[in-house]
Design goal:
This protein is mostly helical. It has 3 helices and 2 strands; from the N terminus they run H-H-E-E-H. The chain has a two-stranded antiparallel sheet with strand order 1-2. A hairpin with a 5-residue loop joins strand 1 and strand 2. Helix 2 packs antiparallel against helix 3. The chain is elongated, with a radius of gyration of 17 Å. Keywords: Membrane, Transmembrane, Transmembrane helix.
Amino acid sequence: MATLFITRDVLMAAIWLSFGNGLLLANLQFRREDSRGNVEAVPVPNVRYYAGIALIVLAVLLLGLQIYSDIAG
């Protein structure tokens, strides 16, 4: 939203949103306590990992579209 308000460019805001959410989905790990009270990291599910990678790839594709539209227009 901040990028949208500052630049007023919807495509650039979509690029940042897609990239940021992709990073969060692919890397965010939660921690939990087991039955003995030890803190352990919960593994990232494969679906969430692949969705994060797909969002990062989408951000790169949108960036290519942004560069093309800047050069062409």
